[in-house]
Amino acid sequence: MKGMAMTQPDMNQLMQQAQQMQAQLQEAQREIVASTVEGTAGNGLVSLTLSGSGEVQDLTLKPEVVDPEDVETLQDLIVGAFQDANKKLQALAEEKMGPLSQGLNGMGF
Questions:
Q1: Checking CA distances to 95, which of 24, 31, 33, 80 falls within 20 to 30 Å?
Q2: Residue 28 belongs to a domain
Q3: Residue 81 lies inside a defined structural domain of this protein
Q4: Which CATH number does the domain housing residue 87 bear?
């Protein structure tokens, strides 16, 4: 009977690992929220800064992109810069959280 108990995972050890993973996940989330990413469009004619929580922090338009005759291009560039920043934010989240979520899956969570 005693030999069988050895093959059982140690619950205390599993709980400790889970708590460490939780702390690492929270730290990664804090790092993401504290970060900023910049998205650009039109070879830098439009740039947009997003916080890690997804809020727009800054928007910069080069004067030459502001054409009253062609507002649609400017709108497209702003949307493009926002999408670029969003992709970078997702990549940052993946970079910070990816290894941790793989670790959690490996532990059976």
A1: 80
A2: no
A3: yes
A4: 3.30.1310.10
Task: Please give the pLDDT value at position 100.
Answer: 74
Lookup: tokens for 53: 């929580």
Task: Name which of 69, 88, 66 is nearest 78 in CA terms.
Answer: 66
Tell me, yes or no, whether 60 lies in a domain: yes
Q: Count of domains in the chain?
A: 1
Question: Are the beta carbons of 39 and 81 closer than 8 angstroms?
Answer: yes
Quote the tokens at residue 55: 């809020």
Helix (H) or strand (E) holding 25: helix 11-34
- Position with higher pLDDT, 106 vs 56: 56
Q: For residue range 42-79, what is the model confidence (pLDDT) as tens digits?
A: 999 999 999 999 999 999 999 999 999 999 999 999 99
Structural domain including 75 reads 35-107
